[in-house]
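$ ./design --mode recover --in tokens.txt
reading tokens...
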């Protein structure tokens, strides 16, 4: 079975949880974050760039530079993270059928509608959790949503 290859959301949550644990005012380098997430530091910066634009993190340049949270992790919902990274992109990996195919147009229209419903459901479910919840572990909350 095919699996999603877009790991941006998972990497973003991972590094945000790391940043949650930094309480001494220091910044964490992309290299340090990338080691923990087991991805390239360029990928970490690509994921955190939009998060910075959304005001969730900030970056510092220089010798002691790196990344830090820009807001309380208890106020950062996973829905926010998802929407920053996913935006209006399809969740279901839709294809582009031949525009002259009546079946293709009909199937595409239906799938786009279903995709929007799925995207809304994902965002709504993620809205129940914050980065702080993940940092502390959320097995009980996940069970309440029926996902554990």
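writing sequence...
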């Amino acid at each position: 079975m095919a699996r999603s290859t877009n790991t941006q959301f998972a990497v973003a949550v991972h590094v945000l949880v790391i940043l949650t644990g930094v309480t001494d005012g220091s910044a964490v380098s992309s290299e340090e974050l990338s080691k923990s997430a087991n991805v390239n530091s360029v990928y970490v910066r690509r994921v955190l760039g939009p998060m910075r634009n959304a005001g969730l993190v900030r970056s510092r340049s220089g010798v002691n530079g790196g990344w830090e949270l820009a807001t309380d992790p208890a106020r950062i919902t996973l829905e926010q993270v998802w929407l920053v990274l996913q935006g209006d992109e399809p969740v279901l990996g839709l294809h582009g059928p031949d525009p002259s195919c009546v079946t293709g147009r009909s199937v595409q229209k239906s799938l786009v509608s279903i995709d929007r419903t799925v995207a809304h459901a994902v965002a709504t479910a993620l809205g129940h959790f914050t980065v702080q919840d993940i940092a502390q572990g959320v097995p009980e909350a996940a069970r309440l949503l029926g996902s554990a």
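exit 0
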